[in-house]
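task queued by scheduler; priority normal; single chain, no ligands, no partner chains; default sampling; output format set to structure tokens
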Amino acid sequence: MNQKIIIAIDGYSSSGKSTLAKAISKKLKYKYIDSGAIYRSIALFAIRKKIFDSDLWNTQNFISLLKEINLKFKWNKKYNRTDIFLNEENIQSKIRSEKVTTKVSLIAQLPEVREKLTFMQRNIGKNKGIVIDGRDVGNYVFPKSELKIFMKGSIEIRSYRRYQDLKKRGEEVSYEEVKKNLIYRDIMDTSRKISPLKKSADSIEIDNTFMSMEEQLNLIFQLIHKKKNK
């Protein structure tokens, strides 16, 4: 039971991947990697560099700026969580804005960005004992991970979760705006040429539309127990 494994959780936007992954990592005392936060950090960097300020943004100009990016994860004792730092600045509270959300899918399409971030994630997980969530972590980043989960839920429940989350942060958004953005992100994530969102053959699908967090965790730990005792 002490053998460390890699748990890869993929799925649609606002399907509860991060919440579930954090709970699993806390229980197992595993390192948690928020793949989405890494891509959001790059999107925030791009917004700050004003590369989206024209209708036709020059991706080559942006790619040349990637060498300026230094990302690090640091444990935050005060809030009992892992924060992400961009060039020594804690950006954890800045990457969940709707402005970043609307641009992250564009950033995730760039092969050069995916190559840089895939290398970073694999380096963090080389000693196993990690829980990672994202869009392509089971298929592409860690294809040999011992347990792969694919999360899904109805567009209505996912939109409501996202809407409630943004309202708690004080953002002025409507439910319809959030739903429209999620539908757009689903299309972008599943149709991109590089590492699209898709369920791998060895992933276990969980539709949590009507599942509580406790039910999800019970199911996951049954699966982990089976994997560790094979």
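post-processing summary
- The first strand starts at residue 6 and ends at 11.
- The chain is about 45% helix and 15% strand.
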